[in-house]
């Protein structure tokens, strides 16, 4: 189970809706849990969104302790004209989080867009 699945308390389900009988013949079955599963996912997303909304008014600064990242950013800052450490760090962090936690990042982007639209 991936970290995201654990966070969302989901269990991976098989996409195959067929079972075999004793003779090995494929039998189709109806999956009544699909709507229930979708409702559960929506509830989990609402729960995550509500938790994230608690932090929307706070200052969005993040501190990171990483010598390799610091050294790369300092090198670029001192060797590339017009290089912006903050912009590059922001882009790298967002790209990494979007790759690692796509569902959570999508919810966060949605909240952020709504917040900006409401201002």
What is the averaged pLDDT score?
A: 80
N→C terminal distance: 39 Å
Strand order of the largest sheet: 1-2
Reported for the largest beta sheet, the result is: 2 strands, antiparallel
Helix and strand string, N-terminal first?
HEEHHHH
Individual helix count: 5
Low-confidence stretches: 9-18
What fraction, in percent, of the residue positions are helical? Answer: 55-70%
Instruction: Write down the oligomeric state.
Output: single chain
Structural class: mainly alpha
Q: How would the global form be characterised?
A: extended
Percent range for β-strand residues: 5-15%
Number of strands: 2
Radius of gyration: 22 Å
Summary tags:
2 strands; 119 residues; 5% strand; two-stranded antiparallel ribbon
Map the helices and strands.
Elements: H1 3-8, E1 18-20, E2 26-28, H2 33-53, H3 67-79, H4 85-100, H5 102-118
Helix pairs in contact: 2-5, 4-5
Polypeptide structure, described:
It is extended and about 65 Å long. The chain has 5 helices and 2 strands. With 119 residues, it is mainly α. Helix 2 (33-53) packs across helix 5 (102-118) and helix 4 (85-100) packs across helix 5. Strand 1 (18-20) and strand 2 form a beta hairpin. The chain has helices at 3-8, 33-53, 67-79, 85-100, 102-118; strands spanning 18-20, 26-28. The two termini are 39 Å apart. Strands 1-2 form a two-stranded antiparallel ribbon. Residues 9-18 have low confidence and may be disordered.
């Amino acid at each position: 189970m991936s970290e995201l699945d654990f966070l969302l308390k989901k269990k991976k389900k098989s996409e195959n809706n067929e079972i075999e009988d004793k003779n090995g013949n494929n039998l189709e079955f109806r999956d009544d849990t699909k709507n229930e599963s979708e409702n559960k996912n929506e509830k989990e997303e609402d729960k995550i969104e509500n938790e994230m909304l608690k932090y929307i008014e706070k200052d969005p600064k993040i501190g990171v302790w990483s010598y390799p990242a610091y050294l790369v950013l300092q090198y670029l800052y001192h060797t590339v004209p017009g290089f912006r450490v903050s912009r590059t760090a922001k882009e790298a962090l967002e790209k990494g989080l979007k790759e690692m936690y796509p569902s959570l990042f999508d919810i966060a982007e949605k909240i952020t867009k709504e917040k900006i639209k409401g201002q």
